[in-house]
Specification:
The protein is mostly helical. The chain contains 5 helices and no strands. The chain has a domain at 87-141: GidA associated domain, C-terminal subdomain (DNA polymerase, domain 1, Orthogonal Bundle), CATH 1.10.150.570. Residues 67-140 form the tRNA uridine 5-carboxymethylaminomethyl modification enzyme C-terminal subdomain domain.
């Protein structure tokens, strides 16, 4: 149901609960009028159906944001999982750090990578001034 809103879901739930409560009241009245109760016997009563209150505005905001951004959050989770798996991946020792071979890296990042010459992506991600997002593109290649 692509265009279902929390407001509509709550309306339906409220209607169903009101119907259940009305049915319960009718059953209770029918039961009370058809049974004779003596002092030694107690009639077990059903738990009353409660009609839920409306959700606070903060719930609407949270649900709305969750629905809107779920695609981005899922992608971020996949990217982070790829990043975690790649941390132990080795970087070839003969790699040439230059703007020609790694065009998306900044000049400062290239200078630092040339100076340190990390052997794994985990080491490279620990270098101050080298952004993990810069390295991520090369992990996925």
């Amino acid at each position: 149901m692509p265009h279902t809103t929390l407001d509509r879901v709550e309306d339906i739930m409220s209607e169903v609960q009101k119907e259940q409560k009305a049915e319960q009241e009718v059953r209770a009245k029918e039961k009370a009028s058809s049974e004779v109760v003596d002092d030694d016997f107690m009639i077990k009563q059903e738990e009353p159906v409660e009609v839920m209150d409306r959700s606070p505005d903060s719930v609407y905001s949270t649900v709305g944001a969750s629905v809107k951004y779920q695609v981005f959050v899922r992608r971020q989770h996949r990217d982070m999982e790829s990043w975690r798996r790649a941390q132990g991946s080795r970087i070839p020792p003969d790699i040439v750090y230059s703007t020609a071979t790694l065009p998306t890296l900044k000049k400062e990042e290239i200078e630092k990578l040339n100076r340190v010459r990390p052997s794994t992506f985990a080491e490279a991600s620990q270098i101050s001034g080298v952004a993990p997002q810069s390295l991520f593109m090369y992990i996925t290649m």
